[in-house]
Write a structure and sequence with these properties.
Helices cover 15% and strands 31% of the residues. The protein has 87 residues and is α+β, with helices and mostly antiparallel strands. A hairpin with a 4-residue loop joins β1 and β2. The longest helix has 7 residues. It is globular, with a radius of gyration of 11 Å. The protein starts with a strand and ends with a strand. It binds FE2/S2 (inorganic) cluster. FE2/S2 (inorganic) cluster (FES) binds next to loops.
């Protein structure tokens, strides 16, 4: 599990191993759109302010992956204990 902090509302949520970031965010009422839920369409893009995303999508190229400034919430997870996102 890891934590996701919503920078605008200062809310901290826990993402358990069996839930996606997208599920946790939408359950908490965050406004994140989704479509494919398989990491291919790019709809669920979330801006990452700090922390290191564990990219599991098929959208980003290597440079974007290394930059770590956005993530696709339906599939990607976190390498750090906490990710801070611009929500
Ligand atoms: Fe398509 Fe996440 S919903 S990439």
């Amino acid at each position: 599990p890891f934590e996701i902090e919503l920078a605008r509302s200062k809310t901290v949520l826990t993402v358990p191993a069996d839930s996606s970031v997208l599920d946790v965010l939408t359950k908490a009422g965050a406004d994140v759109l989704s479509s494919c839920r398989q990491g291919v369409c790019g709809t669920c893009e979330v801006t990452v302010l700090s922390g290191e995303p564990d990219h599991r999508d098929s959208v980003l190229n290597d440079t974007e992956r290394a930059a770590g400034t956005c993530m696709f919430a339906c599939v990607s997870r976190s390498r750090s204990d906490r990710l801070v996102v611009d929500l």
